[in-house]
Amino acid sequence: MARLIHLLLLAAALVASQPGLAGVGELNSVRQFASTAFSVTPADIVLSDVDKPATYTRVELSGRLLGFVASTWKVAGSVGYSGKPVDVLLAISPEGQIKAAKLLEQTEPILTIGISPDDIAAFVGSFQGQDVLQQTAATDSPTAIAGATVSSGVIRDGIVRTARAVLQAQSALADQGQRKLDLAGFTERTWGELTNNGYIVNRRIAVAEARTLLGEEVYEASGASDDAPFAELYVGVLSPPAIGQNLLGKQVYTALVSSAPPEAAIIFVAGNGLYSFKGTQWKKSGVFDRIELLQGDKTIKLTSNGYHAIDDLKLADAPEFRELAAFFVPPESGFDPVKSWRLSLLAMKEQVLGATRTGAFEVNYQVPGNLIIGPAEQSATGVTLAEGEEVSLWQSNWLQRKPAIAALGLMLTALVAILIFQDILVRRRTLYNRVRFGFLLTTFLVLGLGLGAQLSVVHVLTFAQALRTGFQWETFLLDPLVFILWSFVAAALLFWGRGVFCGWLCPFGALQELINAGAQRLGVRQIEVPFGLHERLWPIKYIVFLALFALSLGSITYAFTGAEIEPFKTVITMKLARSWPFVLFACALLLAGLFIERFYCRYLCPLGAALGIPARLRMFEWLKRRHQCGRECRICAVHCTVQAIHPDGHINPNECIYCLKCQANYFDDQTCPPLKARRQRTEALAGRSAGRGGGSDG
Questions:
Q1: Lowest-confidence range among 7-21, 148-162, 200-214, 613-627?
Q2: In whole angstroms, how far apart are CA 491 and each of 30, 404, 467?
Q3: Which end of the chain has fewer surrounding CB within 10 Å, N or C?
Q4: CA 640 to CA 657: how far, in whole Å?
Q5: Each residue of 87-98: b (16+ CB within 10 Å) or e?
Q6: Contacts 24+ apart (CB under 8 A), 251-257
């Protein structure tokens, strides 16, 4: 096994060494794309990149602005469920109309294999003519790709957000005369360049200056010299990517901006020195009492609701800071980040020596002019965004799927009741059989075919990839049903092990069991796999999972391709609407399941293997066994759905699907030999007692 794992990791390293894309969204044919989109001759148009490296491109003809060409990955950082870029090249008119759209790159699991490239291209192309300024919801968008609702939403969201960001950057959404921050332009800069050019400003307050304002006794006990820093503040506006993305890195910056309230400014504050600009009082009061923003005659308090801690800065030449923070300043505060403002540090002597004297030190800030889009760059369209569009994609998905979430909640509640009160249920075999097959039928028809909530090993690989490359909750919140299911399964692993999902919540597993039950009723002869052979076959699924995991270390796309060993997408997600090789493979697995119950689950399922690995971490042992099991009786082992019971009677938690069939046998005095013997002895004693009683009466 060790040698096998070594070979798999070596294969992953070879995959990783293969040449990849030169860069997402990089096309040498931008001119041709723009000329086709705007119906002009390529030689006549003038292209001018906005910022370096180019974030988007202006397209002009004889000094007249035709529109813009932009990449959804470069502008909006659009990321799909795979955690990888979903990049679409857009041509946008100044009035907000999509003139053309072309898919450049995507590695979405549902789109990678099985859905025709023509279908994907047709969906992306159907955005041509869409008005992104007036679009209010997904109902205004082109029809989603069948079987790929979430991925379609990712594409749609990236297109709309990119177009709007570009238009806003060019002031197409601004009123006449209004100046706004450039929220699209980006140039890579060092810490030195940011501070030297006024993007970040700082003020150093020495202990001597603090003593002058607050009194000679300030920090005498600390032994600090007059030149020691009482406080050293670095201040700036994080909203423009030219500042925020450079400081935080693209992933953290994108996550921060996406969590900010609509139109809120984001302020950056970093500090060193003896005096903390945060203090501790804000944890109780919810208001930062040591800093505030001043603009004109306005004083703006910073609250804990708008506070976000920053772990570190991504710039190699940035100094170490004692404190880092970002603050959201909502528009209703009246704060305008384009105009000059001041950060006031309130140095309160009472927090040092118990007195009441207070002094203020101010840091003046004015955002550099090249990050402001002024009236000269404005469009005269005067259009505004449709109201309510600020809801993020994952929030929109959750709101739209409320009925589905409620249905899933009912199913999970019922399942928890079944598992907690399992002893009561399995004592009534007829009721148990009805509940068991009723739940499996619901899982297949409602959870699977109806809601499309089929978990996959792809989710495991995506999660592992996210942990390595940059975790973002928004990626996993895109599909609410999958997120809820995974959360439930994670908790269930601690209580009951792997089997809660495999035995109750897997639509394909439910389909296999239902089909096999029907086959047995029709008299289809079952193949009994000798336990010795079975024991050598079930590790195959672990090998498959390790192979997929090793591939994902080098190429997530190759791993997704290998994950087609799962028939889930073919049978459940796409309902057999795929090319014949996929359908034939899925049907072959179902056919094998007619003769060997849950054949795929036993030997091939990589998801079952991934869940089986932590199965032994469960905290409780709910399944009951007798000392006679495996020695005097093997009924449960013979009838186990997936042969998870060893000949010696113990249950292998890595293989058990928690169907509770063995527990129904455990409490059945018509099936379990120890109970049968006890019942027979009781009946015999009762019979003899009745006989003696009858003779005496005679």
A1: 7-21
A2: 49, 21, 19
A3: C
A4: 10
A5: bbbbbbbbebbb
A6: 251/77, 251/470, 251/472, 252/310, 252/314, 254/77, 254/472, 255/472, 255/474, 256/308, 256/326
